Amino acid sequence: MHDPRLDELANVLTTHSTKVQPGEFVLIEGIDIPQEMVIALIRAVRKAGGIPLVELKQNRIQREIITGGDDAGIKLMGEYEIYRMKKVQAYIGIRGSHNITEMSDVPSEAIQRYQKYWSRPLNDIRVPKTKWVVLRWPHPAMAQQAQMSTEAFEDYYFDVCTLDYSRMERAMLPLKSLMEETDEVHIVGEDTDLQFSIKDIPIIPCAGECNIPDGECFTAPVRDSVNGTIHFNTPTIYQGTTFTDIRLRFEKGKIVEATANDTEKLNGILDTDEGARYIGEFAIAFNPYITNPMLDILFDEKIAGSFHFTPGQAYEEADNGVRSAVHWDMVMIQTPEHGGGEISFDGHLIRKDGRFVHPALDALNPENLI
Q1: How many whole angstroms separate alpha carbon 366 and alpha carbon 368?
Q2: Which structural domain range is residue 102 located in?
Q3: Domain check: are 314 and 361 in the same one?
Q4: pLDDT tens, position by position, 294-318
Q5: Burial class (CB within 10 angstroms; exposed 0-12, middle 13-18, buried 19+) of 188
Q6: Whole-prediction pTM value?
Q7: In terms of domains, do 131 and 247 share one?
Q8: Residues 157 and 170 in one domain
Q9: Which of 137, 161, 185 is the last residue of a domain?
Q10: What angle (nearest 5°) sits at the alpha carbon of residue 206, between those of residues 204 and 207?
Q11: pLDDT, tens only, 336-363
C-alpha cells in the first residue's frame, strides 16, 4: 500500500527545499533507498515542471569502487559526475545505509584519493552552483542507532522531515541579525572554554533548503581567531569510524592538540591537508524534535541546544578562507542532561544550558517551534 508520507516529503523537497521551476533539470541521487521514494520524487519534480534525472547507488558497491580504485579510474568517475552536475539546476540526494560502518575498513589512502579526485571537486560544483538538498533515509540501522523500533523511528523521521520549516525560517531571523552584529563568541561548558571572532563573516540561516532535517544558523570563525579548548560530548562517525571523547586545543586558529578514543586516526584525518586543522564552520542548532544523538550527522548537528564546530573546508556562503578535503561537523550538546553550558556574544549571554535567554530569540526555543 502506498504511503502518503512519501508524497508529502517529496513535495517538501521539490517545492520548499529546491523550489523546482519549469524546465529545470533535477538530479535525484539515491543511495540504498526504496524505489517508492524515488518514484515519488520523479512525480513531484514533473508536477513542478522539472525534468528528473536519476542516479541510484549502493554503499557496498561504492565501497568496492573506492577501495580498489586507482588515480585514473577514480578521477574519471569523478569527472563524469562533475560533467553531469554542471548540467543540472537542482540536486536531491537521499542517502540510506544498511550498515553505518560500511566504509570503516577502507584504507585511508583510498579515502583520500576519493576525496581529492571525486567527492571534493563534485561538491565544489554542487554546493555553489545548484539548488541542493541532502537527507538520510530511515533504514532499520538508523532506528537501532536511535534505540527505537523501526515503526516508531519512521514516524519520528517523517515528523522531523516535514516540520513547518517556513515557521522556523521566520523565527531564526533575529538570531541571524544578532550574529551579524557580533564580534567575539565565548563558549563555556564541561572541559570547554573557547573564544573566537565571527566579525564580517556572513551568517546563513538554514530552514530546510539544503538539509532535511534542518534547524541551524551557521557562519565561520575568523580563521586565526580561535583559542582555547573544547570537549565534544557527542559521538561522531567519520570515514566509517566512530569517534568519542574528542578534545581539541586551539592556538591562533589551529588545532595544536587533538585526542579521542582513537587519537592516532583522529590526527591522521586532521593531517589530511593544512586546512583540516582549522575551523571552517560554526553553527548553532535548534530543531525541536531532535534531542539526543544517534550517530548520524544530518540529525545530530541539528540537536536542540547544541552547536557544532567543524574542522576543514568552509562553505562558500560563509567563507573564512579555510580549504580542505575534510569537512567534519563535531557536535557539543549544552542541555542540562549533557552537562550544560553557555554561549555569549560580545560578553552578553545568549544561550544557557541549551535554551535561548535573549528575549529576541525566544521563538527558537523548542515549545515555540512545534
Answers
A1: 5
A2: 4-161
A3: yes
A4: 888 989 999 999 999 999 999 989 9
A5: middle
A6: 0.81
A7: no
A8: no
A9: 161
A10: 150
A11: 999 999 999 999 999 999 999 999 999 9
